[in-house]
Write a structure and sequence with these properties.
Largest sheet: 2 strands, parallel
Order of helices and strands: EHEHHHH
Shape: rod-shaped
Distance between the termini: 88 Å
Number of strands: 2
Structural class: mainly alpha
Helix content: 40-55%
Length: 164
């Protein structure tokens, strides 16, 4: 059981339009003021220190600045991470990209420039005509008509051998 309540309120005298009697009524109602019980309620109006207000504003401004700086640093970290991922992907695509290889066949058409390849001593030419297979004329005909498709097929076969 409560024996008595003591409440003190300090008002800033620089603030206009605040009535001490209205504040006293509000505080008395809020705390359950009872004079018979011996409760005490004191309302005093004094000018507040401007230094404390300035210090509070400065600390609030510093906190906002620190919060903004940390959010910028977070965004910078994310941006660097994204740029790093893009750089790695670019390097992977560049390193493992389509390296175009020219394939030297035993017979070729004058329409294609295979002379530079045929002159290279390290490449071995495949003499297709040496095979004794009944399908050979059809294959040679296909090579003459669709050289691009044949080159793609050979590249696929070569890369599948490298993977194994």
């Amino acid at each position: 059981q409560i024996q008595s309540i003591s409440v003190a309120v300090l008002l800033n005298s620089a603030v206009k339009g605040v009535s001490a009697s209205k504040v006293k009524q509000l505080v008395a109602a809020a705390v359950g003021y009872n004079a018979k019980r011996g409760d005490q309620l004191s309302i005093v109006s004094l000018p507040f220190s401007a230094a404390a207000t300035a210090q509070a504003k400065a600390s609030q401004s510093a906190a906002a600045s620190a919060s903004s700086m940390s959010s910028y640093l977070g965004l910078a970290k994310i941006a660097l991470l994204v740029l790093g991922v893009i750089a790695v992907m670019f390097l992977m695509l560049r390193a493992g990209g389509s390296s175009q290889e020219e394939i030297a066949l035993g017979s070729y058409s004058d329409d294609y420039e295979f002379e530079s390849i045929a002159r290279k001593p390290q490449q071995r030419q495949l003499q297709i005509a040496e095979f004794s297979n009944p399908i050979t004329p059809e294959v040679l005909d296909y090579i003459d008509k669709q050289p691009g498709d044949v080159a793609k097929l050979l590249r696929i076969w070569m890369t599948s051998r490298e993977v194994r």
